Amino acid sequence: MKTALVTGAAGFIGFHLSRSLLAEGFRVIGFDNHNDYYDPRLKADREDRLKDIPNYLSVRGDVETRGLLSEIMSREKPQVVVHLAAQAGVRYSIDNPRAYVESNLIGTFELLEAARAHKPDHLLLASTSSVYGANTKMPYCETDKVDTQVSFYAATKKSNEAMAHAYAHLFDIPTTMFRFFTVYGPWGRPDMAPYLFTSAILEERPIKVFNHGNMQRDFTYVEDLVHGIRLLMDAPPTGPAVEGDSLSPVGPWRAVNIGNGQPVPLLDFIAAIEEASGREAQKVMLPMQPGDVVATWADNGLLRRLTGYAPRTSVREGVRAYVEWFRDYYGAGAPAARSSVQGPAMLRGK
Ligand code: NAD
């Protein structure tokens, strides 16, 4: 039986990935601190579902605690490590940069030190489409220039890519960085646009639509994303030999987009929520907000060449599953998302 260490297992993506690995017969060590960036009850509820499945071991802790991940890897000997624990959110990083230094910079350093000592067969870490920043060339390709001055969150994730690249090269650790695009689906994050729109529409509150709706996002359904992660897990990089992978000139390292590959107009996404919920949105059209981008769009070519990946879920189907889960989980009313993280930056996901 293979063992996977998943950091951020109580988080949105970590929960879905862990559940899928357990269903496949993996033993999963789920590591998380259940912090209160958003409602910790949602994290506890996700993890309770994982704990009901045999071969799930829950470990509470902070990734930045010196030596803790190394201790866990020494004890549990995971062949695969997927590092998803991070302080996410673009807007939140403006007011709370220290959380990003602790979780993303120091936490990733601790993870890399643990990997250096215990050498998993494959180390996979989450980066983000936010590293493309103010890049306006579409679709975003891994070989494009990255541009992180618009967000401190993106700066820490770009730093994670550089840190992981150095460790992969120096200590010969096969390493994959994922660049995720706006991920949505059941058990989704309450600080992100799909939640903010759905809760407002179901409660008949107005929603803010920036740039008068002239925006597109590469909304990625969480099960498609997990499928992409899973395929990449089985294809560790072995060096610079992957055709077209010019990002890996030295060492077994690469960065790979995982998106839907098809940007969706924001108004179409809202229309899908209206259709799934049977309610009409009260849209308040507003101008573009500084720092926001008009579109995100993943070029999935490298992922497709490496794994044969193709997304399987239409926005209509994905939104229907999300709204169904939302109604089931929250019943009559959803708790308000924290006001400090609301706003258009949420649309950039991440
Ligand atoms: P999430 O916030 O739901 O999950 C992250 C989990 O990590 C949380 O459960 C949190 O409690 C845990 N965590 C945070 N800091 C920690 C620390 N210091 N020690 C231990 N645990 C800690 O976010 P998510 O949407 O599941 O995202 C997973 C990863 O993917 C993150 O690295 C995020 O930056 C990245 N990402 C997500 C998206 C998206 O659209 N959801 C897009 C791009 C990138």
Automatic annotation (TrEMBL):
<feature type="domain" description="NAD-dependent epimerase/dehydratase">
    <location>
        <begin position="4"/>
        <end position="240"/>
    </location>
</feature>
<dbReference type="InterPro" id="IPR001509">
    <property type="entry name" value="Epimerase_deHydtase"/>
</dbReference>
<protein>
    <submittedName>
        <fullName>NAD-dependent epimerase/dehydratase family protein</fullName>
    </submittedName>
</protein>
<keyword id="KW-0520">NAD</keyword>
<dbReference type="InterPro" id="IPR036291">
    <property type="entry name" value="NAD(P)-bd_dom_sf"/>
</dbReference>
<dbReference type="Pfam" id="PF01370">
    <property type="entry name" value="Epimerase"/>
</dbReference>
